[in-house]
Design a protein that fits this description.
Elements lengths: L3 E6 L10 H13 L4 E7 L14 E4 L9 H17 L6 E5 L14 E4 L11 H19 L3 E4 L3 H7 L7 E3 L22 E6 L8 H13 L6 E6 L5 H7 L5 E5 L3 H10 L2 E4 L8 H8 L4 E4 L13 E4 L4 H12 L3 H18 L2 H21 L1
Parallel strand pairs: 1-2, 1-4, 2-3, 4-5, 5-6, 6-7, 8-9, 8-11, 9-10, 11-12, 12-13
Length: 377
């Protein structure tokens, strides 16, 4: 069998560009480079070797997107530049599209094109204003999906969204991942009715549910939980200064920006991770918390139910303050044995399915399937 050839098309690679998709373009590619596979990456980082030369990855530079111009128009122009590079590669090269990087003339690669839209944020817009803004993005994504051989879903609600656009047999579940920590370990949890530490980290913005969490804390404190629950909230964003000024709850620590070193410490010191987000894909912070043996309290949005079941946490409805309060109290009242069992289950679920090694294996299976189809065509 001929060596697999794959070209990854992306608008940026971490850390040269920040974002979940950009981090995915680095970590997945680096993991796949361990396999017998000829990998090309198209990116906009001029005069920069993004990947370690020892990995044998071929990098192609194309002019990037101007942030001062219309994003969608710039994305289409970028996709035309990417198209020229892909079209010059061997015809049996599998094309892996991150977001809008393959858009113009996408049909040219429809027999070997995989599109990964990640969180499908435009399809989850909540306010009327956001829904209007999302319309052109939804149209572009829908066009790309229909021209792709496969569209990647992270699972859960995202699969249901995609099934409204493309047949289910052209949707493939490929989850996100995080690196397996070298030194995380199960810290014994407090016994029932002993104080617990809850950790939240995200951008302080309404879509992350920070206002839901703050309201739940206020109501829990009002009924006597102020000395039983300690909340460490990390991150900054448009709502941070407002809460920094207004929050008077004695058991809330607003930490602001959290460094990688502090993040590691906070995961280790916490008893449970709480994330009442309003819409998501497959949130990396939840995976990171699971990799650090933390039970999870999270909203049922995106692919969160792929990560959290009743054996390792609580899934609540988005925006449900009462549900969030009930989940926190329920966890607080568990025995140390049950808390420890939840923690171990979180780690086991993560390590069994959501490491980069596991996710790379699933990608290799898909690549081989596509290679086989092209040989038969």
């Amino acid at each position: 069998m001929n060596q697999l050839k794959v070209v990854f098309c992306t608008d940026g690679v971490f850390p040269h560009q920040i974002g979940g998709m950009q981090r995915h373009s680095r970590l997945l590619v680096e993991e796949l480079a361990k396999e017998d596979i000829d990998i090309h990456v198209i990116h906009p980082h001029k005069d920069t070797q993004v990947y370690d030369s020892a990995l044998g990855i071929t990098e192609h530079y194309v002019e990037g997107i101007s942030t001062e111009k219309n994003y969608l128009k710039e994305s289409k122009r970028y996709s035309k530049r990417v198209h020229k590079v892909v079209a010059a590669l061997p015809k049996d090269t599998i094309v892996y599209n991150q977001g809008f990087a393959i858009w113009a003339n996408a049909a040219d690669f429809s027999d070997r094109l995989i599109t990964n839209p990640h969180g499908l944020e435009p399809f989850q817009a909540m306010s009327k204003k956001d829904k209007l803004i999302a319309i052109p993005f939804k149209r572009v994504f829908s066009t790309i999906f229909t021209k792709s051989l496969y569209t990647v879903s992270l699972g859960g609600h995202l699969t249901r969204i995609l099934r409204q656009i493309v047949p289910k047999e052209r949707i493939v579940n490929l989850p996100n991942a995080v690196a397996l920590p070298d030194d995380s370990e199960l810290k014994p949890k407090p016994d029932l009715n002993e104080p617990i530490k809850l950790f939240f980290v995200a951008r302080f913005a309404s879509n992350k549910g920070i206002h839901i969490l703050m309201q739940a804390i206020k109501e829990l404190n009002a009924i006597g939980y102020a000395d039983k629950l300690e909340f460490n909230l990390g991150g900054k964003g448009p709502l941070y200064e407002q809460y920094k000024e207004e929050c008077k709850e004695p058991n809330v620590n607003l930490l602001g920006f959290v460094s990688d070193e502090d993040l590691k410490r906070l995961y280790a010191e916490s008893d449970v991770f709480v994330f009442p987000t309003l819409f998501e894909g497959m949130p990396t912070v939840v995976l990171e918390a699971m990799s650090n043996y933390l039970p999870i309290i999270v909203s049922d949005t995106g692919a969160t139910k792929e990560l959290v079941h009743s054996d390792n946490g609580y899934v609540i409805e988005p925006g449900d303050v009462e549900g969030l309060k009930d989940a926190i109290v329920s966890y607080y009242q568990l025995s140390a044995e049950d808390k420890n069992r939840m923690s171990q289950t979180s780690y086991d679920r993560f390590s069994g399915k959501f490491t980069w090694g596991r996710v790379a294996e699933k990608h290799m299976e898909l690549f081989r399937e596509i290679q086989s189809k092209m040989k038969q065509a």
